[in-house]
# Entry
Amino acid sequence: MKIVVLKFGGTSVGSIERIKKVVKIINSYHKKRYKIIVVSSAMSGVTNDLISKSKEISENFLSSEYDVLVSSGEQVACSLIAARLSHIGLKSRSWLSWQIPIITNSTHKNAKILSIYKKKILDYLKVGGIPIVAGFQGIDINSRITTIGRGGSDASAIMLSKFFEAEKCIIYTDVEGVYTTDPNKLKKAKKIKVISYEEMLEMASLGAKVMQPVSIQDARLNRINIEVKSSFKNKPGTLITKRKNIVNNKIIAGISSTQNDAKVTLVGVKDKPGVAAMIFKPLSKNLINVDMVVQNISANGKETDLTFTIKADDLNKTKKIIEANKNIKFRKLLLKKDVSKVSIIGVGMVTTPGVTFRMFQSLAKKNINIQVISTSEIKISVIIDKSKTKKALIALHKEFKLDN
Ligand code: ASP
Ligand code: MG
# Structure
């Protein structure tokens, strides 16, 4: 059976007009004789709205009931799609997770899909039906409704592709694909034709909002090729696949930048075993996400400077926590808002020497001061002054030949 999984995001099903458009897309695959499994997200705004309702009821809304509530948006979208397909003469029906079923663990709000029963859907496909599966939801072994994390219908689509061994998994969204950098920030951003899972994972984690990061990890583990494309324009999108499938001469696949980071420096910290842990423990307890960390070697063996970055929104809270921390001694606390993290991402840097140098040099040429650096196998990130972000993007985009 030639199966294709088509996933439609919230904006793609955001209005009745758009749902009619989506149905035309589904029909085009039907005409090509594909067996189609559709996964839909809720109409845009609906999930957010349900979440704010839950907050009005209680700040401690039961997480099991939260899942019942927020998963309801998908039900609406699925029935609208199925009914419209049937309106144009195709056989279609909606499938909620419990009807299939899609089994998850019991971690409400953030469950993981464990297995998907295939029989009923396969039978339905065989008689020519087009199942419209509610994304984002599952049930646990106690038949309680679960949800799999914000943006989770991506993961639903990936796991359906895995269990049904789909030939293709296409993620329809409101952008044309994945770009070398945010096209809203840089006009010269180019659509990427093919990108590896690893690069995509870094880009998504750094804020490219095209896909939910965990779903990319699921796709990577299961070797599922994903195509990301627009449901508004009929144009080729971006293929996310394994490195081996990519014949590409670009060292860097993309550049990302953040907007609201802040930098915290503890000057003259007493250098003894366990200080770093002492500093970060209360932060993590308070759910403050620490991003980059650098510690200088202490010149005199007694004191060191420690710098880390957080989200700017967490700055005041962090300040309070550090000042209240009796377990650490330091001379001065420096706080700086208005910094931004600029990262270059590319598997090419593993085998190409000199990438770090080229990045630093092109920033230096533009008189951009680097405040913090961190690297991983396929990524180099720097913290710079927020006002220089655009300049940095332009320079790096050009340096790594992404302009053309
Ligand atoms: N509707 C859910 C959300 O907004 C799931 C999704 O969009 O993928 O998070
Ligand atoms: Mg969504």
